[in-house]
């Protein structure tokens, strides 16, 4: 279970519901350190005085607000605590809106709200009321010395508090150069293309299952790290591969109908393959991979799409340069060597 990062209460009207706040997300980024390649010693981050160029100890550092050029007001931790004591202890609901009316780009970080002591009854009352009305609660809450606008939503049997961006933090969509949406003629999309695209979307539709999607870049990078550890290359850097400059190509007219038809055919074949009996799959010989190569991951729609794009790019490159497949493989072997 995630740690408690905040204790307070949900308030709306005269209702007060004691709750605790728990993180609803976690970072899966790799924790990498900076190293000096000459002796593998860690390279640390230092707080440097910009006037003297010397490091500054933590106890000598304070936060300051510049109200005029080179004129500051220093703020202590107590100043932040005393700014608004009540605001730091409550999730103050200010209104209720239809949940589907909130644009997704306003959402920032999710948190779980859990009832604290004597808060179960009020928690259940608010949850079921919001579920029945289909509303989301807009609230103000102070987290880590900053006030946030937040949306409180019902997910299964939990209340989820999602911090949001304020309106002045969101750049206007009107600044974008976008195709007009008033009629197919204005967008350049023909009725036949739209019909085939709709059919492709319907064929590719499936139930929401986030577990099947993974950070494949992180997985592949970890596979390279594991391979280096197993081979004893714990202090060796991989030399950068030489990249060949791709030949410039002229602009091409894209036949959307042909691309959509190929996509539908490809997806239909893949659907047939996925529906074959399990015993037939068991009979098929398994492919083996080199011990030094990163382990292959389960194919996801994102990986399959990326593979298709990479395959199409290679085919176009070979056709433009006139190289045969054997020449390409020889070049690849020389690179690996």
TrEMBL record:
<comment type="subunit">
    <text>Homodimer. Interacts with LigD.</text>
</comment>
<dbReference type="InterPro" id="IPR006164">
    <property type="entry name" value="DNA_bd_Ku70/Ku80"/>
</dbReference>
<keyword id="KW-0238">DNA-binding</keyword>
<feature type="compositionally biased region" description="Low complexity">
    <location>
        <begin position="319"/>
        <end position="330"/>
    </location>
</feature>
<dbReference type="Pfam" id="PF02735">
    <property type="entry name" value="Ku"/>
</dbReference>
<dbReference type="GO" id="GO:0006310">
    <property type="term" value="P:DNA recombination"/>
</dbReference>
<dbReference type="InterPro" id="IPR016194">
    <property type="entry name" value="SPOC-like_C_dom_sf"/>
</dbReference>
<dbReference type="GO" id="GO:0006303">
    <property type="term" value="P:double-strand break repair via nonhomologous end joining"/>
</dbReference>
<protein>
    <recommendedName>
        <fullName>Non-homologous end joining protein Ku</fullName>
    </recommendedName>
</protein>
<keyword id="KW-0234">DNA repair</keyword>
<feature type="compositionally biased region" description="Basic and acidic residues">
    <location>
        <begin position="273"/>
        <end position="283"/>
    </location>
</feature>
<comment type="function">
    <text>With LigD forms a non-homologous end joining (NHEJ) DNA repair enzyme, which repairs dsDNA breaks with reduced fidelity. Binds linear dsDNA with 5'- and 3'- overhangs but not closed circular dsDNA nor ssDNA. Recruits and stimulates the ligase activity of LigD.</text>
</comment>
<dbReference type="GO" id="GO:0003690">
    <property type="term" value="F:double-stranded DNA binding"/>
</dbReference>
<comment type="similarity">
    <text>Belongs to the prokaryotic Ku family.</text>
</comment>
<feature type="domain" description="Ku">
    <location>
        <begin position="53"/>
        <end position="181"/>
    </location>
</feature>
<keyword id="KW-0233">DNA recombination</keyword>
<feature type="region of interest" description="Disordered">
    <location>
        <begin position="265"/>
        <end position="337"/>
    </location>
</feature>
<keyword id="KW-0227">DNA damage</keyword>
<dbReference type="InterPro" id="IPR009187">
    <property type="entry name" value="Prok_Ku"/>
</dbReference>
């Amino acid at each position: 279970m995630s740690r408690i990062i905040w204790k307070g209460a949900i308030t709306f009207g005269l209702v007060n519901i004691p709750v605790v706040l728990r993180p609803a997300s976690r970072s899966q980024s790799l924790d990498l350190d900076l190293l000096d390649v000459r002796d593998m010693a860690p390279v640390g981050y230092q707080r440097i005085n910009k006037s003297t160029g010397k490091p500054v100890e933590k106890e000598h550092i304070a936060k300051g607000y510049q109200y005029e050029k080179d004129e500051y007001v220093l703020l202590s931790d107590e100043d932040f605590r005393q700014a608004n004591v009540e605001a730091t202890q409550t999730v103050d609901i200010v209104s209720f809106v239809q949940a589907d009316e909130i644009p997704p780009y306003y959402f920032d970080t999710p948190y779980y709200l859990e009832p604290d002591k004597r808060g179960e009854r009020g928690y259940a009352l608010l949850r079921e009321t919001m579920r029945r009305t289909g509303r989301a609660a807009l609230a103000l809450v102070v987290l880590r010395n900053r006030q946030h606008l937040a949306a409180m939503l019902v997910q299964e049997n939990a209340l989820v508090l999602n911090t949001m961006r304020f309106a002045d933090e969101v750049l206007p969509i009107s600044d974008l150069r976008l195709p007009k949406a008033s009629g197919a003629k204005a967008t350049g999309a023909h009725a036949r293309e739209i019909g085939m695209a709709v059919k492709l979307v319907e064929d590719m539709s499936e139930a929401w299952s986030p577990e099947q999607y993974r950070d494949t870049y992180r997985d592949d990078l970890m596979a390279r790290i594991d391979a280096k550890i197993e081979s004893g290359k714990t202090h060796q850097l991989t030399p950068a591969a030489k990249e060949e400059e791709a030949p410039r190509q002229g602009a091409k007219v894209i036949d959307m109908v042909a691309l959509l038809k190929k996509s539908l055919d490809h997806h239909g074949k893949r659907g047939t393959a996925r529906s074959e009996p399990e015993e037939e799959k068991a009979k098929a010989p398994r492919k083996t991979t080199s011990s030094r190569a990163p382990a292959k991951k389960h194919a996801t729609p994102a990986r399959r799409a990326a593979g298709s794009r990479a395959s199409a790019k290679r085919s176009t490159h070979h056709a433009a340069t006139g190289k045969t497949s054997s020449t390409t493989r020889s070049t690849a072997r020389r690179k690996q060597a």
